[in-house]
Design brief:
This protein is α+β, with helices and mostly antiparallel strands and 215 residues long. It is 25% helix and 31% strand. The longest helix is centred in the N-terminal third of the chain and has 32 residues. The protein starts with a helix and ends in a 14-residue tail after the last strand.
């Protein structure tokens, strides 16, 4: 009798499972459609290379959010910077081959007169938090021990490609001209992300606070 009841419930359970899966798929699709930027890249000069990296941004930091993070670093240093950064809303995610992603707490972009674009994102955890073995530096440069991660991408929009560097090797500093956080001596820093590609440029992105600005 018990087995008969289970058999009768089988189709109903299948419908419930199917409905749950469908809802999950719709949520994921909605998240993808809601992004303003999507970048892909390959990690280099770290122990897990070539590790695939993807950055999905839901929106940019507002002027108020940017100023909070910028002021914390420029006026009070790294400890307060991390404290303020960790309280910011989730603006997107950084995905690696690790078991979980990293919440983006800061996202800002500037565009130079020549069309070159700089995108800076920050997470309140260092990459490698879920698997420390794959984000250790292998280059001759000394790796930093920040409790957060700042990634700076430099892109050529006409080609849709670029490179990226991060706080793994470069010092994080405040750019008082652009009023954003950046990597100090970007040109001399070790490359961490190669083959950076901008997969999507939403038309609505320019209408949001934090839109590209000339320097």
């Amino acid at each position: 009798m018990k087995s008969n009841r289970l058999l009768r419930r089988g189709p109903a359970l299948a419908l419930v499972v199917a409905g749950t899966l469908a809802a999950s798929i719709l949520r994921v699709q909605a998240q993808v459609k809601g992004t303003v930027e999507n970048f892909t890249a390959t990690a280099v000069n770290v122990t897990g290379a070539p590790d695939p990296v993807k950055i999905d941004l839901l929106r940019w930091s507002t002027d108020a959010e940017r100023e909070q993070v910028f002021n914390a670093l420029s006026e009070k240093g790294e400890k307060e910077f991390l404290n303020v950064l960790s309280k910011q809303p989730t603006l997107g995610y950084v995905w690696t081959s690790e078991s979980a992603g990293y919440s983006v707490r800061y996202a800002y972009q500037t565009v130079a007169p020549d069309g070159g674009e700089r995108v800076v994102v920050a997470t309140d955890k260092p990459l490698g938090s879920w698997n420390p073995q794959i984000w250790k530096g292998t280059a001759t440069a000394t790796a930093n021990a920040y409790e957060f991660t700042v990634i700076e991408l430099r892109l050529n929009r006409r080609r849709g490609t670029g490179e990226g560097k991060s706080s793994v090797f470069a010092k994080v500093t405040a750019d008082k001209t652009a009023k954003t956080i950046i990597l100090e001596n970007y040109t001399g820093a070790t490359v961490v992300l190669k083959d950076v590609k901008a997969l999507q440029k939403a038309g609505a992105a320019a209408a949001q606070t934090g839109k590209p600005q000339g320097r």
